[in-house]
Every structure is written in C-alpha cells, then in structure tokens.
Write a structure and sequence with these properties.
The chain has 75 residues and is mainly β. Helix content is 0%, strand content 55%.
Length: 75
Amino acid sequence: MLISGGVVVGMATTNDGVDMSETCMDCGRDTPHAVSVRIRTESTKAENAEFSREPYRVSECQVCGATTSTRMNNA
C-alpha cells in the first residue's frame, strides 16, 4: 500500500517472478519488464476515496527502471 500525503494511492498485487518482454520507450528496444496491477485512489478527498479506486497496469523496465502506468478502466 502506498501513502501520499495521508491518502492511500495504490496497492500492488504480488509478482509471481515472471517478467514480460515489452518495448521500453526510454531504452528504445524490447526489454524485460515487471508487470503488476495496482488499485489507486484517484480522489484526494477522504470522504470520496472509497468510491474513486481504479485498477492500473504498472510496467517497470528491468534494464533502466522506467515505469509506465495505464488506467485499465477508461470509462
């Protein structure tokens, strides 16, 4: 669980140790990436936090450390 300014901003699933090969925009080539799904709270207001949780796909390059985050529910 990640806390930023007193607000819970994310929770990660466990990584099973399997890295995926993806294109890294920073490296400019296919590299191994650790991929996880995190639940993030998008609201900064405590009274709305429970209604603003959304899943994000987070991918971290294992070569350069660059991280990308994509909201999975773009409704």
